[in-house]
Amino acid sequence: MGFKVGQKVVYPNHGIGTIEQIEQKQIGNTLLPFYTLRLAANNSLVLVPVSNASEVGLRAPISSGECEMLFKALADDFSSPANDWKDRFKEFSEKMRTGDIFEVADVLKHLTYLSNLKPLSFREQRMLERSRYLVISELAAVCRQPECNIEPRVDQALARAHSKHDRRPIRARAAGAVAGH
């Protein structure tokens, strides 16, 4: 999938950016095309080889129709995360690396829930903040609304998921934890 100058894209774990230019760079004896991407989060520039764009997970933002699907996913019940924080962190790190906003939203939902039960480790707290930023910034860009309008909707969806989860019978929650979900 080729991107055009001016197009908004999502760079995994960094969020929304804009293709500023497509330029040729000399690598050894070969001229290779690169996307020059300006990240919205910190205004930094990133060079991504055009040939590697799909491998690094560069993708178009979700569609406006998928915005409501993402809010619904945030509000859906979920199975309990692994009890061992190392297992949990490994699973969540893999989901974050995919660049799939629905996977990132799942991490956000789980870590928000856990943070309401107990203090998170430093690394999990950073992952919570990163997942929250990625979800809110992509929704804001796609819905063409400021982040301050999106944040309360995300918080409401997360609160609905958490209340659904808390209302599940204990046996069902325990079975989810045993199954590793």
CATH architecture label name of the largest domain: Up-down Bundle
Percentage of β-strand residues:
15-25%
The value of Rg in angstroms is 18 Å
- Spatial arrangement of strands, main beta sheet: 1-2-3-4
In total, the number of strands is 4
Mean model confidence by pLDDT: 89
CATH fold descriptor of the largest domain: Methane Monooxygenase Hydroxylase, Chain G, domain 1
Largest sheet: 4 strands, antiparallel
Q: How large is the count of helical segments?
A: 7
Helix content: 55-70%
CATH superfamily of the largest domain: CarD-like, C-terminal domain
Topology at a glance:
Elements: E1 8-11, E2 15-27, E3 30-39, E4 45-49, H1 53-56, H2 64-75, H3 85-98, H4 101-117, H5 122-143, H6 147-167, H7 170-179
Antiparallel strand pairs: 1-2, 2-3, 3-4
Helix pairs in contact: 2-6, 3-4, 3-5, 4-5, 5-6
Can you give keywords for this protein?
alpha+beta, 181 residues, Thrombin, subunit H, elongated, 18% strand, Methane Monooxygenase Hydroxylase, Chain G, domain 1
Q: How would you characterize the overall build of this protein?
A:
This protein is of the alpha+beta class and 181 residues long. The protein has two domains: 8-56, Thrombin, subunit H (Beta Barrel), CATH 2.40.10; 64-179, CarD-like, C-terminal domain (Methane Monooxygenase Hydroxylase, Chain G, domain 1). It has seven helices and four strands. It has helices spanning 53-56, 64-75, 85-98, 101-117, 122-143, 147-167, 170-179; strands at residues 8-11, 15-27, 30-39, 45-49. It has a four-stranded antiparallel sheet. A hairpin with a 3-residue loop joins strand 1 (8-11) and strand 2. Helix 2 (64-75) packs parallel to helix 6 (147-167), helix 3 packs parallel to helix 5 and helix 5 packs across helix 6. The longest helix is centred in the C-terminal third of the chain and has 22 residues, at 122-143. It is elongated. 25% of the residues are buried.
